[in-house]
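JOB MANIFEST
job_type = single_chain_structure
chain_count = 1
residues = 479
[input]
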Amino acid sequence: MNIAIVHYHLEKGGVTRVIENTIESFSKLPNSPSFVVLSGRKYTGNKIKNVKIIDGLDYSTPDKSISPKILKERMEDAAIEGLQEKPDLWHIHNHSLGKNPTLTKACSLIASAQYPVLLHPHDFAEDGRPSNFHFLKEVYKETYPTSKNIHYAVLNQRDLTFIKILLKNSASKAHILANAIPPPNKRCDAINKLPELPANLFLYPVRAVRRKNLGELVLLSSAYDDLYFANSLGPTNPAFTSIYNRWKKFSKNMEIPISFGMGEQIDCTFEDFVNSASGVITTSIAEGFGLGFLEPWTFDKFLHGRNISEITEDFSKLGIKLNHMYNKIEIDLKHLKNSGVLKSKIKSVLNKFFSDYGQELPKNAEKIAYNSIVKNNMLDFGRVDELMQEEIILSVRKSEAAKIEIQNQAKIGESKTNILAENKNAVQENFSLNSYREKLFKIYLELCNTKHSKVEFVDGNNLLKSFLKPERLNLLRTN
């Protein structure tokens, strides 16, 4: 079996890690498939041995994109060169994300050429990315091809539900294909290696982007005088730099004991850094797969913070216990000087958000959105924007009662040894490389053994309707 894997780039982390794990998972299998990976950028890693760089495959806007037909021909030629023959199957990541509409169209041409295709979306232009969605405008009618040998693989039950709505009455199948979690490198004596780290460190091991909800990390640091919080990496996206720097300045001015980008300030491996922490924390309000809910347990670290139940529901079914985490931090509206500002912000954001997607605002949208954020005069801190978060933190710091209430909800620092051991075992059992390979190989075989059928295209607006709902509004996810 010859397989061509496709992604815009092979930069560290994210999808690149998934591709590396895919190839590694098959490496010890007798008669393993042959892989070639097509990328728009040079690969600087060493785990993938057969990489072909394709001019025109990298991120691109519609005005700078090449012809989809030319890109399709380049991809075919590179795949044949890398495999010494035509691929039996194309495994394409994030084709519909809107990062390069030419790839989206080229995928429809590959599908129409009757190749078996596995489309593997990790994120969606329809999910809080209106600018990406706009880039797909000219190709959207052909963004989601279907046939008997075109399947879709998604990361969680929510996405599977939405994709099945999209694919209803089509010939394509959809699968959950959760990412593999390889075991970490052998644990070392990190405490001796990293003496400069503060005591009682609770680490948020993520790169700073807006959906990571750093304001909530500042709120928790304000409520816990005896704990020290830090995130590991600063942003690479210039669009978030100003917000990130504002949180740094705000925390410094308020003398809140918290560090941003701590991993960039010390010389150590990721494993050393995590091993040196007292615990791991997450405050994220949106995830594709949810790696952050699984990986800490493999380091023998207890995970604290915000749960995202629509993402972690699958994990709970597999025996991973996350009930100790909070689903939201409720804050009394009295901590906002003018609650009318929230209603006004919801109104303006909803109108712009739906307009950016070219959709009409549903009836009672503002009321629906407000009532999903505020219940019984208590708002969810993780669903308001940074300006309101700052105002709330300033008020909370003046109230010992408010700090205690946040502690009662968050329960940071409380841990149970039995849960740690059980979760580690559940992750190792269900998210191993072997388990991933078995699921993926089954999909590969089914695709390659299915007779070709006519390629049709489903209406992506049915997917958009699943994501674009007033009750899903989060003011941290609207830019």
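[summary]
The first helix runs from residue 14 to 26.
The chain has three domains: 2-180+432-466, 181-326+411-431, 330-401.
exit_status = 0
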